[in-house]
Amino acid sequence: MTTTREPGTARSPRPAPGLNRLGRLLVERRRAVLIAGTLLLLVAAALGAGAQNALSLSRFEAPGSASHRAEQALHAEFGQGSPNMVLLVTAEHGTVDDPAVAEAGRKLAAELATAPGVRTTSSYWAQGDSPGLASTDRTKALVTAWLDGTATESRAALAELSPRFTRQDATVKVEVGGQDEVFRQVGAQARKDFLGAEAIVLPAVLLLLLLVYRRWSAAGLTIGVGLFSVLATLALLRGVTLFTEVSTFAANLALVMGLGLGIDYSLFVISRFREERAAGHDRHRAVVRTVERAGRTVLFSGVTVAISLLALFAFPFGFLRSFAYAGVFVVGTAVFGAVVLLPAALAAVGDRVLRPAAAAPARVEDGRWYRLTRRVMARPLASGTLVVAVLLLLGAPFLGVRFGLPDERVLPADATSRVVQQQVRDGFGARETDALQVVATGVTDPGPADTAAYAARLSTLPGVFQVDTFTGSYAHGLARGGPSPDAARFRTGSAVRLAVIPEEAALAGDVPALVDRVRTAQAPYPVLVGGFPADLTDFRSGLLDALPLVAALVLVPTFVLLFLMTGSLLIPAKATLSNLLSLTVMFGVLVWGFQDGHLAGPLGFTSTGTMEPSIPILMFCIAYGLSMDYEVFVVARIKEEHDRGADTESAVATGIQRSAPLITSAAGILGLTFAVYATGSVVFLKELGVGLALAVLVDALLIRAVLLPAVMRLAGPANWWAPAPLRRLHRRIGLAD
To answer: What's this model's pTM, rounded to 2 decimal places?
Structure first.
């Protein structure tokens, strides 16, 4: 097909003065830069080595929410909190009502009450043989405890208490569970998965890099940049832990994205250096031109990825903010390694990374990606429609998404805390440890009659097993018994507390609906409703409420950045829509594989039938940033060819031929690093691994290789269009070469 160049587009790319000066400085001071880089790496290794022990797993709390205020009132007025540690006491013979078992249970509770970090305790035997604390067959009963302090402090105490109270004798068997114990083990398992992933990823990535480069020196430099990013990020995260909690999962993100982006950017820089040397430039001039051209693209890419991850700061949750810290640090250190340290190394030993003579490139027109792109553009409508149909089909399961709340099933089946929680789930009709805590403060006259009527009314709500307060216990609207021996814990001065114990079936169903029923029930005084179910409900609501803002913070700045880079409105619009389209595949597979359980057998996990909402949101921010990363790489090369005077079709084919081998190599390596986490033991990490690996591969192979050239061919000259006012704005503040 004969094409013509769009008029007025031919111009020679201008050098970037700042990057030109940086390139020359790196060449002139290469030894000093490399020495400084080596020292930085050693310091990062020393500080980063201890980062894992400084990280924690934040609770599912929504600061400022009703549940959070209820918990604060519970602490302030009663010196109590929702139970976060459980001892499951199993009678070796008989039932938990047998005198010997009851005596053992009381002694166990008394011993636990004196343990470090434990503020309050209760038990089946202290609450007048409460049925909510005993199994239906009466062979098991619970001792509950509240460990005060932050998640880090309580889980550090649990690390000591859990093995101490796991015991068995001729009378009882004691096992440790509870929500904080579950998520303490999640954090510990995530740390193990981190170390296991390191052992698999590094050798595998090195092998792949050798296949791509066919030079040990190039592979070594690339791995070095990735390791620098990982270690520097861990060191910086350790610094953040001095001021706030940082999730253990942030280290997992640091490993996979540090290696991934470090390798991604290094591939682009080394490839550009090889091109410049092949064009006849000497080593030092080639380094300067590489920093000018590839360095600019890497900076653009880094900013787009960082924008996507910075949006996580819009959530008031430490768990998601931890990923924002990790993501921004990863991007910054990967960009620094690729744009500063790597060019200095190339200036010193760059000729060792050049292709072997036998691997000298052929003409661009002979490349397989060039020919593929030409074939796609010969039938753009058919090619683009086919890809869109495939993506929508694979993403269709997401229409059936059901958001739910996490529980012990995020752990492997043999985890001790999951075993305990599963026994409670299977053998108990209710779960007092997950009671909704109804707290009223400043009550002028907390009369027994009003409180008793309120408790009886709450006990009639669907999903409520029992309500305990200072006047007694209530079920199905009737008094089940008088005040228990420890009834004083429900009333102090002008404050009143009621514990609404849910049925096990209610916790397995629509928990937010249960919380809403309790909150909207008529009360004789103003109340706040907290407890673990309310915490998770408010956490989920906070996530979903902030989602539109987060989406805007991701989509709008990246759109503007691409406009400043290209001067086009269509290219940013096309990038936004195609990136969102590619993410539908990731979300579809999450629902099909994890929510609906089709991957449960191959990957070894238990499906809960719902999706915990924070993980898809996190994956959206990461995957969208990486998609824009690849968009920047491709569009930068296409625009470079277009600015040299090539028509749209030639610019697209040449740009893809020059960038696609790098993008597919980078996507394959990054996909591998993500996929390694599918072999881990925590469901959250499996979801991240499978979903993000699929997202980057789909983006590289379908979006960039097929959909992008098809759309650009259909758009023709309109690819570079913008209204006159925006063209003038771009000429003034644009970031074009």
So the answer is: 0.82
